[in-house]
Design a protein that fits this description.
It contains 10 helices and 17 strands. The chain is of the alpha/beta class. The strands form 5 sheets. It has a 7-stranded parallel sheet, sandwiched between helices. A 3-stranded antiparallel sheet has the order 1-3-2. It has a 3-stranded antiparallel sheet with strand order 11-12-15. It comes from Sinomonas terricola.
Length: about 260
């Protein structure tokens, strides 16, 4: 099969669904996974697809619904764990932090009890549970969302009273032009307040979030002081982010199992 034919088949699959996996394409097209990866890279260079860890996705994905925490929890677990391990390296004993809601921030929060003498504020019920009783925890009030975040006027009013060293923020989407986004308008407002309360903003977003555009912008790409993603980011995405964010850290997922 010629490369042009494979490219057409890949794009046809992306017309039917948001993403395709390298292994599936290699089997259906009877070629090696390396060949499929090269095909995806070529399609990306033409602006026809974007490379994500383990496969390819549409150039722009629009995500306006807000899935529940349990739905998101089982996806990209290896990447989230790797990102969490890199994020905890930024935390010094005695620090004051704010941790927003999300499954990646939840993975990060589970590691925080290993760091002594922390004070952690959060608007996430799940993050507070992960911290347990060994970490001094401040939980904002607010309206509960499907992702177990507390948002709205009570949450933003609480944040207006806080000053922390680092804000670790999970996002629903990471888009070069659309910035960091979420499908929940109130969560976007609360996350902006969290960023304003912090001396430094650290965004935690696995590579599947790149190119995803959701309803409400939290902040433009440049607003983050540090972005921690994973090695599944394409080379073009890496260049784009390196040019616009002071510190980009890519967690290595090559030694872990495959993503779900």
């Amino acid at each position: 099969m010629l490369a042009a034919e494979r490219h057409a088949r890949i794009l046809a699959e992306l017309d039917k669904r948001e993403a395709v996996r390298v292994a599936e394409l290699a089997t259906s097209l009877a070629v090696s996974e390396m060949t499929i990866r090269r095909d995806i890279e070529q399609l990306e260079s033409q602006g026809l697809a974007r490379r994500v860890h383990g496969g390819a996705a549409r150039v722009v994905d629009f995500a306006f619904s807000e899935p529940g925490f349990d739905v998101k929890f089982g996806h990209y677990t290896d990447a989230k764990s790797a990102i969490a391990r890199e994020a905890v390296k930024l935390v010094r004993p005695g620090s004051t932090l704010f941790v927003t809601a999300g499954t990646t921030t939840f993975a990060f929060a589970k590691l925080l009890p290993t760091v002594p003498d922390l004070t952690v504020a959060t608007n996430s019920i799940k993050v507070a549970e992960a911290l347990g009783h060994s970490v001094r925890t401040i939980l904002t009030g607010g309206e509960r969302t499907p992702s177990e975040a507390l948002v709205g006027p009570l949450a933003t009013a609480s944040l207006a009273q806080l000053h922390v060293e680092l804000c670790f923020m999970g996002v629903h989407g990471l888009h070069p032009r659309g910035g960091y986004t979420t499908p929940n308008l109130l969560e976007a407002e609360t996350n902006r307040a969290a960023a304003e309360a912090a001396a430094r903003l650290v965004v935690l977003a696995d590579s599947s979030k790149y190119g995803l555009l959701s309803l409400a912008q939290i902040a433009p790409i440049e607003r983050a002081d540090t972005l921690i993603s994973d090695s599944g980011l394409s080379s073009s995405a890496r260049r784009e982010l390196d040019d616009r964010i002071p510190h980009v850290i890519l967690a290595d997922t090559s030694t872990t199992g495959s993503h779900e």
